[in-house]
Amino acid sequence: MKKTPLEDWIVNRTGIAAGNQAELEAYQLKKILETMDYARKNSAFYKNHLAVIGPGTINSLDDVKNIPFTTAEALQKAPYSFVCVPQQKIDRIVTLNTSGTNGERKRLFFTDQDLERTVDFFNYGMRSLTDRSDRVLVLLPGNTYGSIGDLLKKALARSGVPCTVFGLLTDLDEVEKTIEANQITCIVGIPIQVLYLSRMKSDVFKRRIRKLLLSTDYVPAAMVDELHLKFNCQVFTHYGMTEMGYGGGVECEAQNGYHLREADLYVEIVDPYSGAPVENGEYGEVVFTSLTREAMPLIRYRTGDIAAFSEKSCPCGTFLRTLKKVEGRFNNRIELDDDAFIELKRLDEMILRFEEIVDYQAVLDDDNRLNIEIALYNESHDAHIKEKLSTMIQEYIKNSFSITLEVNVSANQEKKPNQLKNSMFKRKIYDMRKERRNE
Known about the structure:
This protein is an alpha/beta fold. Helix content is 31%, strand content 21%.
């Protein structure tokens, strides 16, 4: 098993001694202080937000917990107040689909230097799974400058790996032709899309595809198991978000969690309620601080993602930390009156194991009825799947006596995932109870 290529990249980028965790932490503390000073001077938001932190009060990484969090709500409310460079230096603006309560949308700003750092990270991150014998197909947006597909293609070119950016997965037959024509061996894409493609075009998967990199959304274990066992694919996952500058971390050959972009990011796990740091091995909310961003550094940004740092060293032999696979988002679970939860993660593991299902939607309505709408590509299995699913999900929610269950096939729904219509659509579980909507 080869060591993660990110180790050499981080050592070279930071100038630390190989294997020296103390030097990496000293580098990160120095960059946090520089970022705070830069943001105070150039960002209207951070000039006020960091006023509570006096000079000389952050002397160790442990002191970072005293810096106030940055929230998604603040970013939605006034994105331009975060910008630290003149408008003419902005080379890409990304508007995210997630809307705030008042209709605001998060906007993220990048300079050329910000995008170059992401290309540099992608170059080494993709070496975790590819070599020059591979041919990569990217099923992500890529027809504009600075888009994910554009950055990935530039990164792979530096390693001499041919890359085809297909863009949105709108035509299965065209994707199949592209795979055959370009002798594709590796696909980078959104989890539910790649699963759908593999089920609808299983023959070309079996013939051609050896490696997968799943990114931009939660990756259910059921999906990884199917893709690995059915097609003998190595399935890697990437963790990142636009706020991080797209790239956050990627699995190595051990495939037991992500090695992080620690030259550009400082990552913490905190208790989602108290905000206090948690011990390694304990799950909490992922929080990150940008270390090298020009246009829009974010300091202690709360992601809403659920994860934990591993207590054990990675089998690949790196000294870098390992972030366990993200377990979903806090807003992808519904809190019930009895302090229990219905989680999208648990529903995924049950529902997506049925190969006839291409997508589903879960909604808890005002009558405390959990409605599961499933889309099948073979409706002849309708009754069988409804019966089995109802039994499995009823067992899952059996202790929630106020919840009833209804499982239906969506007769009018297109037989393909919602994420094929909007590739950056984030799957979620919907809580439509009035008292929750009004909170």
